[in-house]
Every structure is written in structure tokens, then in C-alpha cells.
TrEMBL record:
One of its GO terms (molecular function) is hydrolase activity, acting on ester bonds. InterPro entries: GDSL, GDSL_lipolytic_enzyme, SGNH_hydro_sf. This is Carbohydrate esterase family 16 protein. Keywords: Signal. SUPFAM superfamilies: SGNH hydrolase (SSF52266). PANTHER family: GDSL ESTERASE/LIPASE EXL3, SGNH HYDROLASE-TYPE ESTERASE DOMAIN-CONTAINING PROTEIN. CDD domains: fatty_acyltransferase_like (cd01846).
Length: 286
């Protein structure tokens, strides 16, 4: 049974406790500062004030899963950072101050990863999620060179970080693949050829990610993985948005549209994502 927000905040002591460590970019961010107030029953994302600052213009998939589509009391440490790439040495972010996936993992391992008294997480009752690559691919898909080889380079670095999380104690991992970026409003203003090229690069990257996830689970004792196909769900909802209570205009954005702005899905779409991810997890960890 899925819990409501009121049950989470009021009856948390009667529920199982789960720690969720989230890594990614603006598609996941809530602007959490790990040196600030930590997650608690008063605010399960810790800081800033719930639901944080998101690119969705309201709640995003992380906050929906934290407070609504969950079967346990969830404390979410969301290290995701807007504009993040896997590693700034591979793809430079839009500003030098942006924390890459590599930087986010360092923040975790130096803080909550040490299992301090205030964050007593266990391997069995914690989830680690990774949704990265939107900016890596979005900022490079048109460049010359073997794009499959570049995806391998990115994924090598990604899974070096995942290995670090495993060594720290992570055993339950949720991975999210690249969404249909070629259907963002900003890309709809580009050429059909450009959109097709981006879709092709994403397809290659997603296939390689699926192989890496399967191999990671097969070669690491005690690991359980889930891979959510964001690409398929984005297309499903964009192909028939009114079924999900969203505006039929898939090139527009704002309240009531799939897109919250010209590059990020809005609150309504994120609600659908959270529902689908909850179905995938099936109460096994959150």
C-alpha cells in the first residue's frame, strides 16, 4: 500500500526507515546542502524547505517518492546538482562551480558515507539512485568521433563512482536511463536531422547502460539493481499527454504541460515518473 504524505510525517515511528542517497543533475535536484539541516520527520529532504528548489517548478520525482509513493519512512540525501555532468574533465558543465557526479560521490563518502551517528544507514535499508548523462549527451551529441566509444568512456567513469558507493556499503541501486531529450521544446526548435542524431546517440548510450547495470549486479555480491526506462515513459506520456491529465500541446511548457520549461519535465510529468518508479521498486526498498 502506498503511503500518503500525512502518514509519512505523522506516523513515521511506526514505519520502517529507509535512507535514500540520490545522485544526478537538474532532473533530480532539490538543492540539498549536506552541511545544512539533515533529513528528519519534519523535513525528509533535510534542506531547503520542502519540496526544495527543483527544475520541475514544484515537486519532482524524488520528492514524490520520498513522501507519497513509498512504503517506508524515507530520509533523502539528494546530492544531485543542476547542470551536472559525469566528470567535468570529460564534459565541462556550464559553470565551474557545478558539482559533477564525481564531486557528488566525494561529498557523500566524506560525509554520510562514513555512517556518522546522525545518519545511521545500513546496506540493507538504503537505496542509491543514479540519473546522470543528460548534460553529458545533451552538450556533446553533435560532436565528431565515435559516440558509442564516448558513451563507453562516460560509463566507465560512472561505474567507477558506483564501485565507490558499493565499497562504502551500497547494495540497492536504482539506475535511470537517458530520457527523450530530442523531444524537449528546445530541441523542437532545431532541425529534424539534429533531433534524429541526438535520439540515435541516446539509444546507443541507453543500451550500453543496460549492459553495465546487468554486469554490475552479476559481479557484485549482495547487489540488487533496478533500471527505470525513462526514455520509454517520456515517449509514452508525450504521445498521449491528456491521458495523464496534461495539456495536449507537447511543444509548450508551464503549469499543466508535460514540460515545466524548455528542457525539464514539469511537476505533473514528475508525478507520473514517481508512480512508475514506485511500481518498479514494488515496495522492495522505499
Amino acid at each position: 500500500m502506498l503511503r500518503s504524505t500525512s502518514l509519512l510525517f505523522c506516523a513515521g515511528s511506526a514505519m520502517a526507515q529507509t535512507y535514500w542517497f540520490s545522485f544526478g543533475d537538474s532532473y533530480s535536484q532539490t538543492w540539498f546542502d549536506p552541511t545544512g539541516e539533515l533529513p528528519s520527520t519534519a523535513n525528509p529532504i533535510g534542506n531547503p524547505e520542502y519540496p526544495g528548489w527543483t527544475a520541475a517548478g514544484g515537486e519532482n520525482w524524488v520528492t514524490f517518492l520520498t513522501t507519497k509513493y513509498n512504503t517506508s519512512l524515507v530520509f533523502t540525501y539528494n546530492y544531485a546538482y543542476g547542470g551536472a555532468t559525469t566528470d567535468a574533465a570529460l564534459v565541462a558543465p556550464y559553470e565551474d562551480t557545478v558539482l559533477s557526479f564525481v564531486d557528488q560521490v566525494a561529498e557523500f563518502t566524506e560525509g554520510a558515507g562514513t555512517k556518522p551517528e546522525e545518519t545511521p544507514w545500513t546496506s540493507e535499508e538504503s537505496l542509491f539512485s543514479v540519473w546522470i548523462g543528460v548534460n553529458d549527451i545533451g552538450n556533446s551529441f553533435w560532436l565528431d568521433g565515435d559516440r558509442g566509444e564516448f558513451s563507453d568512456t562516460l560509463l566507465d567513469r560512472d561505474f567507477e563512482m558506483v564501485e565507490t558507493l558499493y565499497e562504502t556499503g551500497g547494495r540497492n541501486f536504482l539506475f535511470l536511463n537517458l530520457p527523450a531529450l530530442e523531444r524537449t521544446p528546445v530541441m523542437l526548435n532545431q532541425t529534424e536531422e539534429g533531433r534524429a542524431q541526438e535520439a540515435s546517440v541516446i539509444a546507443v548510450h541507453n543500451a550500453k547502460l543496460a549492459d553495465r547495470v546487468a554486469d554490475f549486479e552479476a559481479t557484485h555480491d549482495g547487489v540488487q539493481t533496478w533500471l527505470w526506462d525513462s526514455y520509454a515513459v517520456f515517449n509514452e506520456v508525450l504521445d498521449d499527454p491528456t491521458t495523464y491529465g496534461l495539456n495536449a500541446n507537447v511543444s509548450g511548457y508551464g503549469d499543466g504541460y508535460f514540460w515545466g520549461n524548455d528542457y525539464h519535465p514539469g511537476e505533473g510529468a514528475n508525478k507520473v515518473f514517481a508512480e512508475r518508479i514506485a511500481e518498479l521498486l514494488d515496495g522492495a526498498i522505499l
